[in-house]
Each structure stands twice: as C-alpha cells, then as structure tokens.
Prior knowledge:
By secondary structure, the protein is an all-alpha fold. It has seven helices and no strands. The chain has helices at 2-23, 28-50, 61-77, 85-109, 114-135, 149-164, 169-190. Helix 4 crosses helix 5 (114-135) and helix 4 (85-109) packs across helix 6 (149-164).
Amino acid sequence: MLLYIYLIAITAEAMSGALAAGRRNMDLFGVGFIAFITALGGGTVRDMLLGNYPVTWTQHPMYIHLTISAGLLTMLVARYMHRLHTIFLVLDAMGLIAFTVIGCNVALELGYTTTVVIMAGMTTGIFGGILRDILCNRTPMVLRKELYASVSLLVAILYLTLRHLDVNHDLNLLASFVFGLTIRLAAIRWSWSLPVFSYAPGRWSD
C-alpha cells in the first residue's frame, strides 16, 4: 500500500513542480527537470547524506519516466488544474507523510540513531519542494507558510514512537497517515503556522 501511495505522491509532486516551472515560463526541458527534481529530489538528497548508494531512482527507471511524463502532461491539462486544487492538497499531504515514513525506514535499515532517522524522514518529505523553489528563484514555501515541515517532523516522531512500542506496522501506518493528514489539512483550513522570525535591525535602533 505504501508503494502505491508513493507512486501517486511522486506523480502529484511532479505535477506541482511543472506548475511552478510554468509560473517561471520555462521550456519543455525546464518543466520536465523541475518535475523530476520536485518528485525525487528529497529521496536523492537523503540517500546522498546517508551514504545509501546507489540512489533509489537509479535502480527504478520507471520513477524517472513517471515523473517527467507527469510533468509534461501537466502542460496539456494546466487550464483545468484549478478545479483539482482540493484533490492536489490531499495528495500532497499524503505524499509528505509517505515520503517521511519511507525516509525513516531507509535510515532505520541503515542502523542510524533516532535523531538521524527523523532528519532522514523530514529530508525525504520536504527537500523536493525546497529544491523546486530554489530553482524557481523563490523562498522555499515549506519554510514560510502553513505547517508543512512541522507535520513531517510530527509524523516521524509518531511513527517511530509507535514502532518502538511494537504497534502493528499496518496500524502504525494508518495512525501516522490519519494524524498527518488531519494536522496538515487543518493547518490549510485555518492557516495554522509557526511564529515567524522577522529580523530588522532598524526596529531596535534608538
């Protein structure tokens, strides 16, 4: 089940990357590249940081074909994307949770400590979006708007806690998804966010 959610998630992320590229008036290559980076960038950075070689997508070419195709397809259906906004939000939230859990599992299998496992989960969950925004010359949205990176952190903590308590794996996944989706969608609905740090030296000058 996690694999199917992962495939849906990377498709949705690729499409979000393509839309971001379209806002910057990129050509076909740019759209395909940004779609690929958005969908698979988090896992790539995770594998590089953890020394987990070969990088996952190099062993599964289907992921490359799927993400680039989804990005290019988005160009054809872009005029209808606003009608699918709600569905996209749900798929994006599911992707965040799936990426986080997968990242945690990769780090666990490699024998890393709990702190590193949590960071690996978060890196997998949010870094694709960070790379997308950097390449599109924007401040990463995951670090400045509704709760997003924080949801990844909380999901990772919950997943590892339930795993430590020997909760059935399927039940653990269900609980992590329900919890993550609830927090993420509630954050969107009511604009929940963390306190913002705004540094302006002039505010404190005499």
